[in-house]
Amino acid sequence: MKKQTKPKLSERLRTWDAGSFDLTEAIDPDPPVPVTEYDLRAEDLPPLARLGDRQVRGFRRIYPWLAAILAAVLVTILLSAVLDLPPYGAAENPPHNEVMERYVARGLAETGAVNTVSGVILDYRAFDTLGESHVLYTAATAVLVLLLSASGGRDEPPSVRRIMEGDPILRNTARVVVPIVLLFGVYVILNGHLGPGGGFAGGAILGGGLILYVIAFGFEPMEKLISGRVYRRGITAALCFYSGAKCYSFFCGANHLETIFQNGTPGAILSAGLILPLNIAVGLIVALTMYGFYSMFQRGRI
Amino acid sequence: MLQSLWENRVPVAAVVLFAVGFTTLLLHRNLLKKIIGLNIMDTAAYLFLTSLGYIAGRKPPIITDGNTDPSAYVNPLPAGLVLTGIVVSVSVTALMLALTVRLYERYHTLDLDQIYLMAKDEEEEKR
Predict the structure, then answer these.
(1) Out of A173, A226, A238, B79, which could bridge A281 as a Cys pair, Cβ 3.0 to 4.6 Å?
(2) Which helix (H) or strand (E) holds A69?
(3) Nearest CB partner across the interface for B76, out of A50, A116, A286
(4) Which among A32, A88, A91 has the least Cβ separation from residue B105?
């Protein structure tokens, strides 16, 4: 059984010309098909009227007050904690201890990275960043599982997006902007050990560029570059490379053995040992995940 | 006390931002707005962490002139920690949004109370 279309739309369908309908249909996508028996019964009683449920109504009445009081108590506790903090920006504060001194004083010589933050997250604390990449990968997998089974092969794109795709303003803007965005993303990834930037920031910019392209031109042209297979293989290969490289560098570098990755001249593009390849791997993971999230939310598959 | 609060104005701003996110999370029944509130709370935590790494009058820890004296740069460690946090919050947000999509496809509403009522009805039907 199919759920009735909204009365407004059917009313208009009866009285208006068929030709004037494209816009209305486009703004109001097909009503979802009910999946449970419950939906059919819920139509008899519109959900808003059912809010007369006594339990919920009573709860609704006291809930805002309880929430406000809870928030006020929380803010008071946090502010009294702030009062006990050492002065903001002072050099003697406890976070600025020998760890920070060591990172800044020896970081350039030990990691070869001009950007100390890159040196910290991709060399000294690279296992942390490895775990972070795995969190991203796990989240992408979970979203894939949730949305794949949900859509049930909903291949037809929503109508709203179809309007946007043909929009000449969006298309022409994207034609100019997308190459610049992608180039900037690559620059930020490759520049991670030389200045502000790195795999996470650059990967997010790359992913944003890919999403903008897809919004303007649709998924079909993008399929040639990033299909489901490319997505899966790209992410897995980047993660495997990261894990392998980090095992290698911790085994060789941490024991002061010779590694084949030299630190090179600080400031040169091919320097800082493993940081540049790791930045590229992380950038690949982040860009593919961002694009994958968008694709899964938009059409239920990659 | 006011003097002390003014000296620590960035952590105070983080607390205020955290409270804004917390009340958004609690007072809205719409699931999407709850997720937005949670993200604002994330941002407050990042602001607090980065403010701990700041040292007045120092440069960012990017050593372009070969000067490796630690007293010339701010603390690089909180920046790295915040980077970790941002990625985790992006993952958590995506997961929450996917769960919200599933809830919407089942109940056709984002209102938590209505979802609760419908779920309660379903359980009663099962009995």
Answers:
(1) A238
(2) helix A54-83
(3) A116
(4) A32
* Encoded tokens for A66: 């309880």
Exposed/middle/buried for A83, CB within 10 Å: 0-12, 13-18, 19+? middle
How far is A87 from chain B, CA to nearest CA, in Å?
6
Contact flag B15-A36 (C-beta cutoff 8 Å): no
Q: At B88, is the secondary structure helix, strand, or coil?
A: helix
Which CATH number covers residue B43? 1.10.287.3510
Q: Cα A244 to the chain's mean position, in Å?
A: 25
- Total domains in the fold of chain B: 1
For residue A82, the distance in angstroms to the closest alpha carbon of chain B comes to: 7
* Torsion from C-alpha of A96, A79, B29, A139, nearest 10 degrees: 10
Summarize pLDDT for B13-65 with one digit per residue, the tens: 999 999 999 998 888 888 999 999 999 999 999 999 888 888 888 888 887 77
Which residue type does B14 have?
A
Structural domain including B29 reads 2-126
Nearest to B77 among A39, A100, A135 (CB): A100
User: Cβ contacts of residue A138 below 8 Å, gap of 6+?
Assistant: B91
What SS3 state is found at B73?
strand
> By C-alpha distance, which of A9, A181, A116, A66 is closest to B68?
A116
Cβ–Cβ under 8 Å, residues A276 and A192? yes
B56 touches chain A (CB under 8 A): yes
